[in-house]
Amino acid sequence: MTVSITCADANEAERIAELLVTQKLAACVQSTPLRATYVWQGKVETADEIGLTIKTLRDKLPALEAAVKAAHSYEVPELIATRIEWASADYEQWLRDALKP
User: Fold this and answer.
1) What is the pLDDT of residues 41-82, one digit of tens each?
2) Interhelix angle for 10-22 vs 61-71, to 10°?
3) Is the separation of the CB atoms in 72 and 6 below 8 Å?
4) How many whole angstroms separate alpha carbon 5 and alpha carbon 38?
5) How many Cβ atoms sit within 10 Å of the Cβ of residue 5?
6) In terms of CB atoms within 10 Å, which end of the chain has fewer, N or C?
7) Kind and range of the H or E run holding 28
8) Which CATH number fits domain 2-98: 1.10.10.60, 3.30.70.120, 3.40.50.720, 3.30.70.260?
9) Running DSSP on this structure, what letter comes out for residue 58?
10) Are 1 and 82 in contact (CB under 8 A)?
């Protein structure tokens, strides 16, 4: 699975990424600066954010969601999971090994 979230700034993104990897909720977290335009409380807003792409397994999603919500500054953080259609066998094995307790 890949999970997409956005963070308010680089410090928050780094803190959440490290938390998820340390707790074995993510095998890898990639960050990308981005500009978001969205509706919040009836108004169109634009903000610079940091997007995180999180590599994980489906059974980790409930704990990952709880960890992100507890650590995030946003009232409603983005949490969107997408199934990986294909990955090389080596990468898939690395992902599973990285997330073993």
Assistant:
1) 999 999 999 999 999 999 999 999 999 999 999 999 999 999
2) 140
3) no
4) 14
5) 24
6) C
7) strand 28-40
8) 3.30.70.120
9) G
10) yes
